[in-house]
């Protein structure tokens, strides 16, 4: 299937009033005016829940505690399934669009980015994100199934799969991978190089193949360090175990739900693949594969 024939992953929800809303991976439901689906209710958080593409499926991921003070479970979406926002607000899945392969973009030699939105902005740092970006040097968008790009005030050029192109000073490479293999292949369908995570007392480094390692400090470092100690083999542990160790003398539950979206955002801004931090069904861990390595450089917990 060519890019022109391949639809974007999406889910159509039916609201209680029979209205229908379409959400793409990464779209957020919440009270905030920038949310993709806005719910004007004080009991709903500004960023309440989001849709995510993981392991070949579309998931509903709650981001904040609900009206009863608890975060609901992650839900694998399927036609007929329902997710609860409020007691009186349930969203029913009417249909899913889930192609067998998804388009991915590689900026320079970084980790591949799943193109699950129709428009992307690329910063001078190589950071790519859907929607506006104040420091964008290039814009990528999809029209009639084809991807186009423009750098600055230059002309629009079609980005063809398998053909590299320099736009805005950045090397762009478009490809397609199976939707259930995210994190395993690059844009030209080559295996992603091994990940190496090394953690010291004050910072962690994440290296991807021969690329210069990315340094993590603050809460991203603390989370990676603790997970490297608790589940270094790629397993998972309940989020309460992680949160209570990170913030033992404060409201660790509130701290966890406040900081988790921020940590994910910081990882994304640094160009690290989202699959490195797994958080599903109340379990959290490092998305390690057989070739990846974790090294604790000293024995103490953060």
Commentary on this structure:
By secondary structure, this protein is mainly β. It has 3 domains: 10-97, Tumour Suppressor Smad4 (Sandwich), CATH 2.60.200; 101-178, Sandwich (Tumour Suppressor Smad4); 195-296, Orthogonal Bundle (Arc Repressor Mutant, subunit A), CATH 1.10.10. The protein has 3 helices and 25 strands. It has helices at 218-230, 239-246, 252-269, and strands spanning 10-14, 20-23, 28-30, 37-38, 49-54, 57-62, 75-76, 82-86, 89-97, 101-107, 113-114, 119-123, 128-130, 136-143, 146-151, 157-158, 165-167, 170-178, 195-199, 204-208, 214-216, 236-238, 277-280, 283-286, 293-296. β8 and β9 form a beta hairpin. The longest helix has 18 residues, at 252-269. It is globular, with a radius of gyration of 20 Å.
Task: Write a brief caption for the model.
With 302 residues, the protein is mainly beta. It is built from three helices and 25 strands.
Secondary structure layout:
Blueprint: E1 10-14, E2 20-23, E3 28-30, E4 37-38, E5 49-54, E6 57-62, E7 75-76, E8 82-86, E9 89-97, E10 101-107, E11 113-114, E12 119-123, E13 128-130, E14 136-143, E15 146-151, E16 157-158, E17 165-167, E18 170-178, E19 195-199, E20 204-208, E21 214-216, H1 218-230, E22 236-238, H2 239-246, H3 252-269, E23 277-280, E24 283-286, E25 293-296
Parallel strand pairs: 3-4, 19-25
Antiparallel strand pairs: 1-2, 1-9, 3-5, 5-6, 6-7, 8-9, 10-11, 10-18, 12-13, 12-14, 14-15, 15-16, 17-18, 19-20, 20-21, 22-24, 23-24
Helix pairs in contact: 2-3
């Amino acid at each position: 299937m060519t890019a022109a024939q391949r639809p974007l992953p999406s889910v159509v929800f039916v609201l209680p009033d029979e209205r229908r809303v379409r959400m793409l991976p990464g779209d957020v439901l919440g009270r905030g005016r920038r949310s993709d689906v806005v719910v004007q209710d004080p009991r709903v958080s500004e960023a309440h829940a989001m849709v995510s593409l993981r392991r070949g499926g579309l998931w509903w991921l709650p981001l904040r505690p609900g009206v009863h003070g608890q975060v609901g479970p992650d839900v694998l979406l399927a036609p007929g399934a329902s997710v609860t926002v409020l007691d009186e607000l349930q969203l029913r899945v009417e249909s899913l669009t889930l192609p067998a392969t998804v388009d991915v973009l590689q900026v320079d030699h970084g980790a591949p980015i799943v193109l699950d939105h129709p428009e992307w902005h690329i910063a001078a740092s190589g950071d790519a994100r859907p929607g506006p970006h104040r420091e964008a040097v290039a814009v990528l968008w999809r029209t009639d199934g084809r991807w186009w790009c423009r750098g600055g005030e230059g002309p629009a050029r079609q980005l063809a799969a398998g053909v590299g192109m320099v736009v805005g000073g950045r090397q762009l490479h478009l490809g397609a991978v199976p939707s259930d293999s995210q994190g395993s292949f690059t844009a030209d369908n080559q295996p992603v190089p091994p990940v190496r995570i090394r953690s010291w007392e004050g910072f962690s480094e994440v290296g991807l193949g021969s690329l210069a390692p990315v340094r993590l400090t603050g809460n991203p470092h603390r989370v990676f360090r603790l997970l490297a100690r608790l589940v270094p083999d790629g397993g998972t542990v309940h989020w309460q175990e992680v949160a209570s160790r990170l913030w033992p003398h404060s409201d660790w539950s509130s701290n966890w739900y406040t900081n988790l979206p921020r940590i994910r955002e910081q990882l994304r801004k640094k160009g690290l693949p989202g699959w490195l931090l797994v958080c599903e069904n109340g379990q959290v861990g490092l998305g390690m594969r057989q070739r990846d390595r974790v090294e604790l450089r000293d024995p103490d917990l953060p």
